[in-house]
Every structure is written in C-alpha cells, then in structure tokens.
C-alpha cells in the first residue's frame, strides 16, 4: 500500500494508524558522538613517572619565569610563565604549574595595580 493511496479516499481524515514495521524516521542520536565533559586525558600513573616527568621540566621553567617576573619585565615574563604553567599542568606537573600560574598572575597584578603608586 502506497503512502498516498489514502488521499483519493473521501473518508480519509489525515490520520494514519501507526505502522510498527516501518522505521523511516530520521534521528541523529545514533550518529552523534557523545560529549566528553570529563576531559580524561591519557595520563599514566604518577608511580610510573613517564608522563609526569615530561611536564616537570616545563613546570620548573614556568616557575622560574614567574619568579623572575617579580623583578624584571613583570607583564611579559608573568604572561609567559602563566602560559607555560598551563602547558606544564596539562603534561602532569600540576603543583608546579599552579605555582607558576599563581606567581605570574600575582606579578602582573602587582605591576599593573600597585607599582604605579610608588
């Protein structure tokens, strides 16, 4: 039976019974990939130290940049320390990265808001 056969019927009211054997509906839920809000990156265990070791050097470099920025070129070196600190955090050096981000931000804030008064 064709879909348009009912249009010639004078008693047709526009409502067809549901055909449970016909699945011609378009849905996108089966096609779309699930969103990963967890941000679960492929990290190895801390005891293994292979992945955390790669970010450790960057963490110390970022921390050194942030400490130096307290004395010389605070806006530039502080911003670079913050950026490298984020990269170090992503590579596994969470503590060093956070300290570098915090000191870099403190250096920029001190330079922009406190130093003009002295």
Write the layout of secondary structure elements.
Elements: H1 50-69, H2 74-90, H3 94-114
Descriptive report:
49% of the residues lie in helices and 0% in strands. By secondary structure, the protein is mainly alpha-helical. The radius of gyration is 30 Å and the shape is elongated.
How would you describe this structure in keywords?
single chain, 118 residues, mainly alpha, 3 helices, 49% helix, 0% strand
Q: Can you give the mean pLDDT?
A: 78
Q: Helix coverage percent of residues?
A: 40-55%
N/C terminus separation: 89 Å
Strands, total number: 0
Oligomeric status: single chain
Task: Bin the strand percentage.
Answer: under 5%
Order of helices and strands: HHH
Outline, from the CA principal axes? elongated
Q: What is the CA-based Rg, rounded?
A: 30 Å
Helical/strand content category: mainly alpha
Largest sheet: none
| Alpha plus pi helix count | 3
Low-confidence stretches: none
What's the short version?
This protein has 118 residues and is mainly α. 49% of the residues lie in helices and 0% in strands.
């Amino acid at each position: 039976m064709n879909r348009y056969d009912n249009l010639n019927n004078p008693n047709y009211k526009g409502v067809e019974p549901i055909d449970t054997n016909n699945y011609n509906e378009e849905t996108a839920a089966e096609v779309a990939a699930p969103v990963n809000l967890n941000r679960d990156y492929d990290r190895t265990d801390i005891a293994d130290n292979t992945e955390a070791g790669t970010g450790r050097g960057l963490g110390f470099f970022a921390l050194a940049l942030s400490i130096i920025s307290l004395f010389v070129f605070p806006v530039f070196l502080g911003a670079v320390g913050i950026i490298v600190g984020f990269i170090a955090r992503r590579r596994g050096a969470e503590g060093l990265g956070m300290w570098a981000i915090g000191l870099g931000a403190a250096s920029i804030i001190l330079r922009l808001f406190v130093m003009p008064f002295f």
